[in-house]
Amino acid sequence: MREAAVCALADDRRKQILAAAERCFARHGFHQTSMQEVCREAGLSPGSVYRYFRSKDDIIVAMAGENRQDTHARFATAAANPDVIAGLLQLAEDVLGQINDPACGPLHFECTAEAMRNPRVAEVVRRDDQEIVAGMVELLRRGQEGGHIDPALDPRRAAETLIALADGLTWRKFLDPRIDLAAFRDTARLMIERFLRPRA
């Protein structure tokens, strides 16, 4: 019981540090943020933070790991829906909600920019992207096998197109934070349905 409590505390501390780092990176950028700033934002001593993360690189890798777990959970939820398109529409709605967070765009582009300079971060970012594409391709193939999705569509290209839509909306929100992506919900649903449904 005591061991479980210690593990739970460690997990809470880790999440506390990651949340603080996300806020710092979104406000000031990756390179302008020091580990000391992350410590202050988290309200923890340097020793406490360095116990979990030795560097900002470690923090970004951990963020990617958290994002990967979240992505797998979302794909699993979508895959559990008997109607694949309904599952994909719910997935799209979840992603829109995430992108609508004002911190999402700056953090996304900071990680992308760092990946262009840092091979370790680049490896993590590319692996995450490949897993997202693979998850989307698998969903689309299942939808085609079940008769829910147009069999004429190439699953890989369709997956890349849908992901590009999310990337584009992330960029639009970054350029104009006043945009409320909740207003795009119905339009996005209509576009996705028309794109994926079998032709009559």
Structure description:
The chain folds into two domains: about 1-55, Arc Repressor Mutant, subunit A (Orthogonal Bundle); about 65-195, Tetracycline Repressor, domain 2 (Orthogonal Bundle), CATH 1.10.357. The protein has helices spanning about 1-30, 35-40, 45-50, 55-80, 85-100, 105-115, 120-145, 155-175, 185-195. The model has no long low-confidence stretch (mean pLDDT about 90). The protein is built from nine helices and no strands. By secondary structure, it is mainly α. Helix content is about 80%, strand content about 0%.
Give the mean pLDDT. Answer: 88
| Alpha-carbon distance between the two ends | 59 Å
Radius of gyration: 19 Å
Q: Low-confidence segments, ≥5 residues, pLDDT <50?
A: none
Taken as a percent bin, the fraction of beta residues is under 5%
List how many beta strands DSSP finds.
0
Q: Major β-sheet, in short?
A: none
For CATH, the homologous superfamily of the largest domain is named as Tetracycline Repressor, domain 2
Structural class determined from secondary elements: mainly alpha
What's the shape? Answer: elongated
Helix content: over 70%
CATH topology-level name of the largest domain: Tetracycline Repressor, domain 2
